[in-house]
Amino acid sequence: MKKTLIYETLTIPDPSFNDDQVKMIGTWHGMNNICAFPTKISRKTTSKTSVKNVDNTERNIILLKHKSMLFDPKVRQLVNESSSLFQELQINVEDQNKSTDALYYSRKYRAILSTCIIAIERHNKDKLDEIYNQYELLLRNLELIWHLCEVLYLVTVPGDTILNNLLDWIKIHYEKAENQASMIIDDKTAYFTDECVEDKFPFYWDTIFGLVLQGNTDLVRALLFNHSQSKTEPFIQAMKIFKSMPTYSIYGGLPIAEYTSRFKGWQSNAKNKLECGIFLNDPNLQDLMKIICGEPDCTNLIRKHCSTWFEYLVAQLIYTDPTVKKHNLSLYAHRSVTNYYKESEYNHMDTLALDLFDGDLEAFVKKLKSYPDSGWSSTHLTNLLHLCDKIEPEFGISDATKNSNPNEQYLLDYGTFLMTHHSLWQAGITYLDNCSDVGKEYLSVLLSKLGITSHLRTTKILHYATSRRLHNVVSSICKVKGMLSLQKSRLGEALFWAIRGQDSAFATRLGDIFLKEFVSSGQFSCPDILENLGSIVLTCDRFMFIGKYLEFMKLVKQSKLSEASSLYIDLLRSNICPKYFRLRLLLDVLMFIDDTNECYFKTSEVALVTMRLDDAIVEYEEINGECTDECLSDQICNIRRGIVKLLSISFR
Amino acid sequence: MQNSSTYAEFIGRKVNKVRWKPEDLMASTMFVTGSWDNENDNVLELWGLTSGNGNSAIDFPPKLLDSKEQNGDVTQIKFLDNKFVAVSTDSGTVKLYRIIGENEAPTVHLEEVTSWENLHSYGKKNKCACTDLAVCNYLLATIGADHKLNIISLNTKQVHQVVEEISSSLLTCVCFLTDTQVLCCNSLSQMKLWDLRVNKSDITADINNFSQNQMAIGCIAQHPSQKHLIFTGSEEGDVGVWDMRTNSLLTTMSSGDPSSITELAFHPLEPDHLFSCSSGGKLLQWSSKKSYLCQIDPGDLEYSNFWINTDKVKTKLTVNTVMQPICDPINSLDIQKQQLICGADDEAVYFKQNLNL
Description:
The structure holds 2 protein chains of 2 kinds.
Chain A: E1 22-29, E2 33-40, H1 44-47, E3 62-64, H2 76-94, H3 102-123, H4 130-154, H5 163-173, H6 176-186, H7 189-193, H8 197-200, H9 204-213, H10 217-226, H11 233-243, H12 256-276, H13 283-292, H14 299-304, H15 309-320, H16 329-340, H17 348-358, H18 361-368, H19 376-387, H20 406-419, H21 425-433, H22 436-449, H23 455-467, H24 471-487, H25 491-501, H26 504-521, H27 527-530, H28 536-539, H29 541-557, H30 561-574, H31 582-587, H32 603-623, H33 630-651
Antiparallel strand pairs in A: 1-2, 2-3
Chain B: E1 6-10, E2 15-20, E3 30-35, E4 42-48, E5 63-70, E6 74-79, E7 84-89, E8 94-100, E9 109-116, E10 121-122, E11 126-127, E12 130-136, E13 139-144, E14 149-153, E15 158-163, E16 171-176, E17 181-186, E18 191-195, E19 203-207, E20 217-222, E21 229-234, E22 238-243, E23 248-254, E24 261-266, E25 273-278, E26 283-287, H1 310-316, E27 318-321, E28 330-336, E29 339-344, E30 348-352
Antiparallel strand pairs in B: 1-30, 2-3, 3-4, 4-5, 6-7, 7-8, 8-9, 10-11, 12-13, 13-14, 14-15, 16-17, 17-18, 18-19, 20-21, 21-22, 22-23, 24-25, 25-26, 26-27, 28-29, 29-30
């Protein structure tokens, strides 16, 4: 029993479907579109009576098109660039000499994403195009989640102290505070004119909070130094505290225990100062100190300065548990997400991130599949994680699909999806190439479904099919092209396609046309091809005959009659001559009668000619001259006369 | 420091042809691309590279200067001189464009000068592809899927001569051997030479059996200094060297890749270097120049006969890849001075400076 997988459910808000008797029927239209239309089902018993009641209500046929972000001209570079990187990765994996550094490739994929984002930004500078704004947001979120996955799973951290990596992640994606800070610091006028920086820039304190929550203490100190009150005691003290904050670095040589005690010491020192009331004069400074002391009552304060719970999570960790281990993150993540949202309504991004923090890569990958990027991210990320053995090759996938490998399943889906595009089909081939035998089956079906509109496209498709040994595709395309040429009565081209596809049945048919044309007009068309038939003579008997016959004609023309005669006898003896052409061939015996009275045939050979003539006459009478020319039958007497003459010469 | 890395720019359409705008003295800063297989949205685009800081280094990515819609896949682009460019499409049209306003950078654009519609058609109605065009001294030769050869005079902008039914199978490429001789190749690896002076045009030479397998000749290139040497690229990845004085095949060279060669081009000033690109995504440089690593043969003072001497071709020719192979077909390439540009089916234009000549 096979289960049906439901990928997506759509509702079509068309009034004509709102009828109990109406059923919706859909058919595939092209490779990627579905036509849906309403049909009124009337029961058989009533049908006789209701024939006259013609239903006049207007019904629409609805065309469902798969529209994807990836097909936008600006986003297409994402598809193309990633397909070549994907190919490079697959090749390097097979090569034992090259190490596959998953981190390196993950970063490259992210670089491709950012290039694409930049291209969209450049195109949509004033942010007026709503569609591009949406695309940009989607891609940015994707990069954020990809980066998180990279930080948690691909970067190796000795001792699993993950905070520094998380900080890098946050700093890259939430750069607002840093940009504002550099704006404030770069502004020199305030410095010279005694203007208060905090008054000039209303976001001064917001910036400082933002930076503190990203652990960027150096910039915080620089900003505090620019404050008009920076020479006063509270500011000096605050800067001193920030300066003395111990930072943990994996390669710094400090053991975790040692670092923790130093951090605790620094924090209690700061707490002492806070409790002494040094900062009471300035409420902002007071709040700042509360945050860095890790006071439990300042969570609301932190929450106010964070735009997402990702920031909130990391910000809390800096001052409460700086040496947090990877496996503890799950708890913190769930706690901060519930704290951050008032209601427990998580969006797609939240669940994706939670899966990552929980260490449930399988669930993550499955959810990523429904991200609205037509499977770009799930395909590439799953493939990457699969290749570096982060996910099991077979995790619980439904039995509906033939192959249990999700990596392969995603590749198949994505490849098939790309193949439906009029221009990106070549990129799709790359993905289908990498899914073992099933991919090949898919390819052979999809390649032969591609439209063969232009010659250039046809040659490209043939190139792909030939190099993948999909001979059925090659022959079907050649047959279609050949028939099209034949319909336009372009024999030469049709023959070219028959040769290209090595299609002997089609070639036989063409050969018949050539021969019949010769019978009626005495001339072959397309002499340039017929003189150079090449390998088609080996696959098709008809062309073997045509080739030999042409050779015979050539010899006769050059009056090399003795060679011609032996070829002639060979032709008769082998009996490869088609029936309708036999009399025409026998007529050629007259060419050997000339004034020199030279003997070209042995008696036995003349007997063969006679025998063949008798056969031909019998056959001719059977079909009663339906397909042979009338004048040819008149020639029978001439042939007989010729044979007699030849016989008389041979006896001489 | 010499910068020898390759740059890529994705332009959102598959590139079928790419050509540098010729410049006499300096490295060219403009090129045109023609796209294919993009439903009804195929274009000819003019791109400009901005020279950074007056250095010789040219900045990539290029800037799109102008774009002209075409009514079909662009099949060939040829510059007549440094202003005029001829473009053929697979709907049987050939158009002539002029690049205007080069010195005032923001207004550089393409202007259509002439358009020859329906040069190639089956009967009166059915349009068919113009597969290739060639240019020589104000003569334009076009061939099409209707097995017709048109000779257009660029002085009068009129079709000057029409030769019908020159081949029974599809014509693939065309090339002027001299002012008056046109060489056509077809998809059954046959080459035909036409003399335009003969009143009733007739085949002067019919050259066959390029290979046993009857694979199409995909592209053709003429040696820049020894005009009688013709190089053909086949669909099976072989390059054939022909001597048109004797109409004979001198030798064939294998590119080591069974995919078809899509374009062959000599360096216009350094004829010792031949470049080829293939459907397998490889870009090769075939150098006949004597390498300093090779032992110098005292009797070998002259290279001019390099290609004639088959043994030398077999032993002294060096083949190098110019850039990292890509997985999609490279459709076109062009070289100007020390810079190379090529266009591929992954919708990218690749640019490489400081070629190793």
